[in-house]
Amino acid sequence: MKKIVSAVTMILLAVTAWASQDLTTEIRRQLSTNENRNILYYPVSVKQFYNHTGFQPAWIKPQSGSGPAWQGMLLLDCVMQYGLAHDDYHPKELLYNRLHAILDTPEKVSLKDQASFEIILTDAIVTLMNHLHYGKLNPEFPANRIDTINTGFRAETALQQALQQKQGYDFLAAVDDVQPKSKLYRDMQRQMRLLTGLYTGDCYDVPEGSPRVMAINMERLRWADISDSSGFIHVNIPSYTLELVLPDSVYQFKVAVGKPDNPTPVINSAVTYITTAPDVVMLKSVFLNTILPNVIKNPDYLIQNHLSIYNKKGEFIVVDSSTLADIEKHPGNYFARHTSGSGRALGNLVFHFANKFDVDLHDMPRKEFFTHDDRALSSGCIWLDAAEKLAALLLQNDGRVNELPKLHNAVTHYQRETFILHKQIPINITYLTCELKAGELIIYKDIYNLDKGVEAALYNKPGLVSR
Predict the structure, then answer these.
(1) Which pTM value belongs to this model?
(2) Cα separations (Å) of 413 from 197, 343, 395?
């Protein structure tokens, strides 16, 4: 009797192995012929995933109710806990009745349909992992770039590692771990999971109220690439705040930011050096819209406001009737500088960080600006209150306490000094219209009216209006 049972078991194993081999062949065929390419969001990543596994199925194989296919489907069911939209993960193709049919009665489902389900489920999980890591709408990392260029994180590699976990919970935790590690994000994600866990009914609904505002800002935090491992500067535009976050302390400062018609952009960069008594190059928009019209009206405007005009070669231009005519005709060939030692209209200190927007962080001697609740006041740059304090903290963090008297003297007497930081400090300029502080959700005014656009794109609903 034992021999008969053993023989039957061997036959079943052989049949399963043969079916698996046929499925492997079909997976290889579909990927090599790009049969599903128009359906897949990350076709290159999916193909790399199966190249690495020898085109063996990751999901469609014998398993219990807690097996990988069911865990993957469960994960897609619960994307609202991340503030994401279920519609983005092939809901029309990845149906539970199809998966039941494939796993329970595989002889009744064609190998073509089995392979297609397998490939599309892989694409859905790869898509989710990329959305969790980079964000769905990341302007620097669109899907095509992530799929075709090595941008650092590779979802297909992370998925392979997640599938090697022994327990279903470990698989879910491994996927969860691809999200940003910053405290700002993790706090918001925990709160989102808590709130959406209270939902009953259809978990595919777009979240409303506080969860929706949090979802919008979790998406933005995925773009921000904030690291808590060492010191960094965080400027949040809607809250008009700057935080210097060091391993042992957090220091808070007031800032003013760009007006709605000259908004401060979102930037990830690093402060590399500090300058006192700076020559400040004016923003091109300020030169075109403010300085040049005033110079045309009033020839003394430059002298009165301690400004000078230079050409593209950096040559000083004596402004008279002939040069002014050329400047007016070809304004793109010129720029204005606010000169060092000339009345300190733009402050004593500039914190320099590379960015394509020519935006600076600098102090503003007119302290009354920082008493306003609404501080969208500048032409795009960031004005900082207590700038000398921030500069001193950065020098201390750089191990240069002995240079603090030199800094203070340069600021007090408006003398040019440059302090190049040995340790560049990351600066993240974000647009977060909500934050969690001490467990309480704080919602800020959407000063640039940007939430609706992100919301509509995030949930694939152009007419969506916040409620």
Answers:
(1) 0.81
(2) 59, 12, 19
